[in-house]
Amino acid sequence: MDFNVKKLASDAGVFFTRAVQYTEEKLGQAEKTELDAHLENLIARGDCTKNWTEKIFRQTEVLLQPNPSARIEEFFYEKLDRKIPSRTTNAELLGQYMQDAAKEFGPGTPYGCTLITVGEFQRRLGGAEREFLQMSAINFLTPLRNFLEGDWKTISKERRLLENRRLDLDVCKARLKKAKLAEAKAAAEHELRVAQTEFDRQAEVTRLLLEGISSTHVNHLRCLHEFVEAQAAYYAQCHKHMQDLQKELSSSNGDTFPNAFAVNASTSGVSAGPSPLSTATLPEVSPPSRPPNPSNALESSTLKIEEVKPPATGTRKAKVLYDYDAADTSELSLLADELITVYTVPGMDPDWLVGERGNQKGKVPVTYLELLS
Description:
Order of helices and strands: HHHHHHHHHEEEEE
Strand content: 5-15%
Number of strands: 5
Oligomer: single chain
Distance between the termini: 80 Å
Radius of gyration: 37 Å
Number of helices: 9
Largest sheet: 5 strands, antiparallel
Low-confidence stretches: 255-283, 295-302
Strand order of the largest sheet: 4-3-2-1-5
């Protein structure tokens, strides 16, 4: 107990002395040993690396886990050195709900069957997301955390020690200036030499650690490439799953939902095709080629536009993407950017819809339209 009191008193005295030194340095009343320019640059570079690495690390955590409560839970698991429990992703949970709902509605019904299919693909998306999160945590977050909690703490500790050595050196310099007697000067010169040696040694240690920041950048660059690769693989998997889902839904529900109301190439934004912008905005974009005239025998012989009636349900609004000139009286001429009502009728070619604008009615090509709600 006596030892602890003495140590506490000693630490308090050192703290007070340091505070006085810092104050006198700020006021220009005390000499301050300056670090060499190279070491100052290394320190500034190290601080910059630490600050931006910390920001990138925190924001990557938010990207991978937007839920703050879940991040706090994972933080405590890491501090307790315990394995983080596996957490169901939102897509997996949605897929499970869909499949459970299908059991209630009846898996044999069109809605129940589709729920089962979509639910399965949602679970696949969730599995791809979980794999992406795991790979990103291992290959990107962990190296950044190791730098912040390991290398940087060591550098910070040595920098604090270097600052103490500098303050000790300045104290010895001030003591030598105040010494009057030869014996006091000799003792002060000896203390100065010892303090200078310790300062130089600590400066060299700090310099070597800070120069290691370059290798840290190289390591983080490699980790960044791995993170991008994991991200690209994840999005590619998601894209493939959604394409497979679209194909499966199109093949199974083609009779229930006509092809004209599916998302076509001109509005999907994924596959190549005309952009859903008018030619007035992008004059260099040419309209798609005119679709061939319907060759369906049923349509050509029995479908008369003037006799077609809109269905009770199933009509939609569509935005015209390009000007279109009707080839005959059965077609409707279009102007870019106008809105029309469209619908399909049994036996009609899937590349065409029936369009209405006021009292006018006629066939219109699907590729010239952007289907809205």
